[in-house]
Prior knowledge:
Strand content: 5-15%
Largest sheet: 5 strands, mixed
Structural class: mainly alpha
Amino acid sequence: MKKNVKIALTAIGLAAAPLTMQAENPFFEPFSSTVHGTAPFSQINDSLWEPAIERGIELAKQDINAITMQRSRPDFDNTIVALERAGEDLSRVLNVFYPLLSAESSDEMMEIASRISPKLSDYSTSITLNEELWKRVEQVYDMRDQLNLNPEEQMLLQKTYDSFALAGARLQGEDREKFRNLSAELSKLTTDFGQNVLREMREYEIWLTADDLSGLPETSIAAAAEAAKAKGREGEYLFTLDQPVYSPFMKYSDRADLREKMWRLYNGRNTQGQFSNLDNIRRIAEVRMEIARLLGKDTYAQHSLQRTMAGTPENVYDLLNRLRDAYRPALEAEMAELTEYASKLEGRPVVINPWDYSYYSNKLKADKYSFDDEALRPYFELSNVVNGVFGLATKLYGLQFTENPDIEVYHPDVKAYDVTDENGQFVGVLYTDFFPRATKRPGAWMTGFRDESKDDEGKATRPHVSIVMNFTKPTADTPSLLTPYEVETFLHEFGHSLHGLLADTKFASLSGTAVYRDFVELPSQFNENYLTEKEFLDGFARHYQTGEAIPAELVERLIESSQFGAAYACMRQLGFGYLDMAWHSITEPVTDAEAFENEATATVQIFPGQPGAIMSPQFSHIFSGGYAAGYYSYKWAEVLDADAFALFKQNGIFDRATADSFRNNILTRGGTEDPAELYRRFRGQDPTIDALLIRDGIKTATAPSVPEIKKD
Length: 712
């Protein structure tokens, strides 16, 4: 997911800098000479970032001064709307810098990020701790009942007020300076954490010979051979820890010793050496705790959850605990079956280690369902998948995607598309970036180079959205062929992109994915449901060599096997949620991160802890990605997405009336209203966890209903 870089109301910021005028710097003016006002990537080099950011800060400060210095009485337009639109020059450069920092970075960009981080933090706190500005915001808020605001304006006022109140505006004296210093330190720590993850990932090269490749699919072997050849070592095989490399290795390699080696390398990242994050995570958690206490809460989780659907740590734990208890018996049954199967396969008693799970579960899945992910790869050639995923948006929402070669891109792998509606009206720009490279961080995400908004006359600024992934790369002989998991990832990020592209709001800070954190994953996870729908797959899944449609029996096996390992997958996600909540519920500093993690995840632990192998030092979502005390939101939103898709299953998975309701009540509205109300308007009821339990095979459709998810 994207980082919101609307500076005025976030927790990052910068000190004043000289107003440097460089006519050649493209960030000094709106991008008016490019197609759709897109970013002019060919004109950007690393020397331009800091002058543009420093100039943007200076102009943003002038915008803030203009608000506080005016003599007129504070009102919604001259204070709240003016603040919303302050800092446009700064937003313009940061909306390009941060997406590129993740997708097309360089050592210089990372150094720049480290240098600007404390400056941005200082700038942000200079806004939230600006007493004159806070007084004006507070005055407008106090007379909100007399302002006759529409729902979106009411939400902007509430969000603005809360953003100040939750960021220390009420602090006095020494506490204000302490908050400023802690915010600056936190900004630097999270930046350092993210850079360590990226830098260490680039260090791993695992060189193997032909004798080490038993069990691996041809696609993995060919990719490893090509990677080695690119390094001048023909005849050898180069493996990395990139997800498209690591995942099939763990699933197919017959060599338990090599699986263990790969697992320990992958799960031991950032625990030692120059890129260790152990000190960073301890201090990040401690700083967040100190900030929460300054703001009147005992823990950071209590502070952070105030503007979420869950509302409180108690409600988060209620969901996590109920899912844990519901899935625990199924997990025990799954692991018993897998252990028995592996023991029969090997002809001896087998203990399933964490590096064995993917290997044996893949074999068991293949035996039970005559199904193997690799058998589907030929039917998921990337260009066909693109057509299928884009076609889903055509069926549901009438959208069309046309590649536009005149739009500049930041890397040759990237493609840019004009997105239009069924009437031919321009909706926005979509960038796709599919393949791993040394300059890109691992994982998959959606971000944006420009948010949707409207001016006072109703003139629209349409969004520029980007989806970034790390799929299996093509080789000299074979195009990019995806696994079902990679298709699911594509559907997920594409769901986020639709949330951004279809936004129809006035204010950018409420547009698209600028919603409560535990609501933002609904559109993305909703899309994932289509992976196991035959009617969807039949529309695009073709063999890349023969053009043959995906056989019906393969589709049936995919659908039948969709519940396989559901309890394992749920417990794994719950473990991440418990770990996140533990780090952000501390009341004293953590001294031993490994012992702390093992204790935090004890009730959902699937395997005994392995020394030196822990998640926390590489857990970018919570330590540098905006999901602090929020990782639970994936499971919260999963309840919503299963419940929402149940309505489509009832009415037809491509039913246009149901899709229109989802679009008009969820996708277009962004953060303009309470998400619980938006969901009720679409669904006609509050969500329950029933649909999720039924989808995962944990309960039957005829079993008694489970109460709705708890919320205040």
